[in-house]
Design brief:
By secondary structure, this protein is mainly α. The protein contains 13 helices and no strands. It has one domain.
Length: 274
């Protein structure tokens, strides 16, 4: 039924394993390790799925994760800071939606490799961000950026989020530098991403990314979100964040390099095995 979601040459069991792992990692990230591991989900799925279907599939699931986060931090937000970084994302979202519209009009074929390489670069940068997060946060915090910085940061975050759900470090670093305190920081980030992802939804629908088959596919994946959340809480008590981040760093870096070089390593390995 979902054969159109699979890259050519990828067997069904491998496809479902990669997709399930990506969604579970997203749940683990949200509940157990401060969201950092979620950057692996998109490149992992893109190894076995067309890029446009990956982005479309992830958006409704991310909104569910955001709603859960907002439920737990409903009162923990600073609206002025939410709007300061959220409003500038809107032009970036529109720009990203225009790119998807152009791809939808001309077909994914001419843009597939370019999209994978874009996500590959993002994945590599994000893997380095995982390792240098504390240093980056401390550096940014010294400057305490204001609304003038929020404008270009927000536009970049909106574009990266619309193309590859990749605004995490941009928004996170900006809000971290506002010295909100841990509780207000987590809640403000949650509200910001809920607004960003909800704003992307009508554009995704308008350019034909979110379709009936995508929503049906998401229905199959929804149970994996709380499963990942439960696993994240379990791992949080048993695995150090340093070790977990190191594993995610390696996996994200490898996935990013494969996408950047357009090496279909999954298919090559399967051919060697079988």
């Amino acid at each position: 039924m979902f054969t159109s979601f699979m890259e050519p040459g990828v067997p069904s069991p491998v496809f479902w394993t990669f997709v399930a792992a990506a969604i579970i990692i997203q749940g683990i990230s949200k509940s157990g390790f401060a969201g950092g591991a979620g950057i692996l989900s998109l490149p992992l799925m893109m190894l076995v799925m067309p890029p446009n279907l990956v982005s479309a599939t992830m958006l409704p699931l991310l909104i569910l994760c955001d709603l859960n986060a907002v439920y737990h931090h409903y009162h923990n937000k600073v609206w002025r800071k939410v709007l300061e970084i959220y409003l500038p994302t809107l032009p970036g979202i529109v720009l990203g939606a225009w790119v998807w519209w152009k791809i939808g009009k001309e077909g994914i074929g001419p843009y597939e490799v370019l999209l994978k390489r874009f996500v590959g670069v993002i994945a590599i940068l994000f893997s380095l961000y995982i390792i240098g997060k504390e240093t980056a946060s401390a550096t940014v915090a010294r400057y305490k950026p204001g609304w003038k910085t929020a404008i270009p940061a927000g536009i970049a975050a909106g574009f990266c989020s619309t193309i590859a759900h990749a605004a995490g470090p941009i928004v996170g670093l900006y809000l971290f530098a506002q010295n909100l305190g841990k509780t207000l920081f987590v809640g403000t980030v949650a509200w910001t991403f809920l607004l960003i992802n909800l704003s992307k939804l009508p554009f995704y629908y308008g350019v034909g990314l979110v379709r009936t088959d995508v929503l049906l596919f998401d229905l199959l994946l929804v149970p994996l979100v709380p499963a990942g959340s439960f696993l994240g809480k379990w791992l949080h008590e048993r695995v150090s964040e340093r070790l977990f981040n190191a594993v995610i760093f390696v996996l994200t870096l490898l996935a990013g390099i494969q996408l950047l070089l357009n090496v279909r390593l999954v298919e090559v390995v399967l051919q060697k095995i079988f």
